[in-house]
Amino acid sequence: MATITRLPFDVSDFAASTPSIPERAVTERRRYRTVWISDVHLGTRGCNAEALIDFLDHVDSDIMYLVGDIIDGWALRKRFYWPSAHNDIVWRILKRARRGTRIVYVPGNHDEFFRQFTGLNFGGVEISRTAVHETADGRRLLVLHGDEFDAIMLSHRWLAHVGDMAYEMLMGCNRWLNAVRGLMGLPYWSLSKYAKSRVKNAVSFISRFEEVVAREAGAKGVDGVVAGHIHAAEIRRIHGVDYYNDGDWVEGCTALVEHHDGRMEILHWVDEITAREKPRERVTTLAA
Q1: CA 179 → CA 42, 84, 102, 184, 232, distances in Å?
Q2: Cβ atoms within 10 A of the Cβ of 136, count?
Q3: Are 61 and 33 in contact (CB under 8 A)?
Q4: Could you give the CA distance from residue 144 to residue 130 in angstroms, rounded to a whole number?
Q5: Which of 180, 197, 222, 263 is the most exposed place for a label (fewest CB within 10 A)?
Q6: Contact criterion met (CB below 8 Å) for 178 and 188
């Protein structure tokens, strides 16, 4: 029998705590039937915590799926990094569960530690290896992180760790670049996302991943699949299967949502923040 390790934190500590960034009193929070987010990578400097906090303060749903790599155990094992904003994200998710939202956590490869708790419930968060979601229009969607279809992860785990270090270096450059852009009054822009879109091998890998995941979903007899892992938000139909990827909260800051009629949409939250702040900038300029 496998030994079950204790959780690295006490869920009750978050329930009793006060967030460092107070929850915004938003008068008209958007309401969706379902929200999917993944690849938050709490515990790393690359996590765009402020954008995700803004998202959680503006969006509600009946169901929320956490589709893996929410906490980056790989990074935390190398060095501990956990700012208060990362606590605030956990606090908001647990508060959402207390308000009645069904929270389903499907761990990925970076938070594989939680896979040993499959079938258990912590603070209203259900831990599941995979899940099947039924949409409002009757379609069945397989929900999984997707690392099980990554050939590098399966065959050469050491290479995956090397790639992870290279990715961290790129994200470090990304943070410096956006710090300069912020001083210039320019919005957030993802260097790593741009690089992936221009590198032929990366584009080819993403395409192969999508094909394999869609084919596996079709073999299981479901109508579609929702995955994370590759940090590439997408909605497309592949071989008769609806393929969805909710993206990430490191580069793209995206979420997949289901409307109450079953319609699916990807929200690009940095664009949402930029659009919301433009009228304020105009008013400030006029006042000056």
Answers
A1: 20, 20, 36, 9, 23
A2: 14
A3: yes
A4: 5
A5: 180
A6: yes
Structure tokens at 228: 């994370």
**Residue range 67-83, pLDDT digits in tens:** 999 999 989 988 999 99
10 Å Cβ neighbour count for 14?
A: 18
- How many Cα atoms occupy the beta-carbon half-sphere of 197 within 13 Å? 9
Residue with tokens 């938050």: 40
d(CA 121, CA 123): 7
Lookup result for tokens 């992936």: 196
Compute the distance between CA of residue 175 and CA of residue 189 in angstroms, rounded to an integer. 10
Which has more pLDDT, 10 or 272? 272
Segment 21-35 shows an average pLDDT of: 92
Structural contact between residues 77 and 113, judged by C-beta atoms closer than 8 angstroms: no
User: What is the reported pLDDT for 158?
Assistant: 40
Q: What is the maximum span of the chain, computed from C-alpha positions, in angstroms?
A: 69
The reported pLDDT for the residue numbered 277 is 80
Under the phi-then-psi rule, with left for phi > 0, alpha for psi from -120 to 50, and beta for the rest, what region is 247? left
Closest CA to 11 of 72, 76, 98, 69: 98
Q: What pTM does this model have?
A: 0.80
Report d(CA 280, CA 278) in Å as an integer.
5
Order of strands across the sheet that contains 30-37: 121-122, 125-127, 102-105, 59-66, 30-37, 254-258, 264-268
**Residue 202, token pair as written in the block:** 């990366």
DSSP string, 43-97: TSTT--HHHHHHHHHHEEEEEEEE-S-SB-HHHHHHS----HHHHHHHHHHHHHH
